[in-house]
Amino acid sequence: MNILEVHHQNSLIEENYIEFRNTGQELVDVGLTKGTGGCLSKHLNEGILVSATGAQLGNLSKKDLSLIKEVRNNKIYWMGDNKPSSESPLLFELYLSIPNVKTIIHGHCPRITYDKKMQKYATPAYVRYGCFGEGKKIANILEQNGGFVILRFHGEISIGESLKESFKKLKQKMEEAHER
Ligand SMILES: [Zn+2]
């Protein structure tokens, strides 16, 4: 890592911070996730910008954004102050398998996750947490479901062209879960 890379990383964070912070706050405000659950991410030319592991999604600081530069032999190479989300292997594989995805949000909303009628959007099996090799299974379901999937007994994933769009998709599913 050289000094130019560090400067570049800082400017990427500057450019994207407000969007991450605002979306994270909205997610928590409407109950789509809470505490340190879930993550936000965005695919940039330089890599994948992702919220850090242990970050409070409702109150992100600039230090909570890490940049995944590269993945080789299932090892994640990243820059930043804090380790990228533990769901990074899954995020990476989804970006790789689905073309034109710019953003992925992962939330933990029990109201959706465990709702009976929402199970039509769920993966058939439990998805192992933080492991490589799970992305391909989920990518197909995401594409069939219009960019949304429930990781069985775990949480939600939504993809989009912007964090706003991914957020909107999640919120619509929450409304659907509330419909009776
Ligand atoms: Zn999760």
List the helices and strands and how they pair.
Layout: H1 3-30, E1 39-44, E2 47-51, E3 65-72, E4 75-79, H2 88-97, E5 103-107, H3 110-113, H4 135-144, E6 148-151, E7 155-160, H5 163-178
Antiparallel strand pairs: 1-2, 1-5, 2-3, 3-4, 5-7, 6-7
Helix pairs in contact: 1-5, 2-4
Bound molecules: zinc ion.
The site of zinc ion has 7 residues, from loops.
Structural account:
This protein has one domain (3-178): L-fuculose-1-phosphate Aldolase, CATH 3.40.225. The protein contains five helices and seven strands, in the order αββββαβααββα. It has helices at 3-30, 88-97, 110-113, 135-144, 163-178; strands at 39-44, 47-51, 65-72, 75-79, 103-107, 148-151, 155-160. A seven-stranded antiparallel sheet has the order 4-3-2-1-5-7-6, with helices on both faces. Strand 1 and strand 2 (47-51) form a beta hairpin. The site of zinc ion has 7 residues, from loops.
